[in-house]
Amino acid sequence: MLTICLMYFLVGGTSLPIDTQLLKQRFGKSWQSYDEHASVQKTMAQNLLDLLLTSMASLALKTHGLKVLELGCGTGFYTQLVQQALQPAFLAVNDLLIPPNLYSLAYISQFLEGDASNFESYQTLRGQANPVPEGLDLITANAALQWVEDLPRLFGVLMPLFSKNGLVAFSTFLPGNFEQVRIAGGPSLCYYDLEQHRLWLEQAGFRLLAHKKDSITLYFDSAREVLVHCKACGVNAIESRLLGRQELKKWCAAYPKDQHDRYALCYSPLYLVAQRI
Fold first, then answer.
1. In the 8-state DSSP scheme, what is residue 59?
2. Which of 26, 52, 89, 147 satisfies CB 3.0 to 4.6 Å to 65 for a cystine?
3. How many Å apart are CA 186 and CA 251, to the nearest integer?
């Protein structure tokens, strides 16, 4: 049953539209295994925080007592880094589905469950309405905004929420991310380069302060292990159709090996910090 249960990849190597309900369902099933397998996302979280702190220091901005919103909080390991480094006076977290373990964290001021691009979709929590916070000093997101299908719209939605000179800091992925999966015929998200992100930010009223490009490669003993990793991290939430046994065999045979006969999976992170003009 391994063939049927693990594989959610569509042979064809195409870029597919994002199904937020499928995304919510898949991450809901994988959140308990996520931290164990999300070594890349944890590295990205620290790198993003480091770039943010460096940018704040260069502008002589205060780093404590801020009003912060995190988009795509996931299981909360980046949330914890933000809390420890910035000690926000107010910290709201958002995701399509907020894992139960976060609700016990006293330092989180507000839980906003729903699509970040559509604040009207936020659900009520414990009988209390959740208005979108305003006057924010920082909106941040680690390894999450690649799942947003219309980033220009999101940046426009976020703009009114900022205080004067507020910051946005996020990490996402560049073209070439998961290149081996694409070569083997798996589906892909649409990834955009630095200049496209810079343009969208400028059009929304932000100026780019700092950026960093990165490359992180994981190695596996087989193509099946790559898919197990993707499932455990919830990054298989693109296509709902399951692969049959023969399709799986074909996909694994097509997965490229490197010069050392290893099955590599390359992540291509991009980190950006921008300020409201």
1. T
2. 89
3. 8
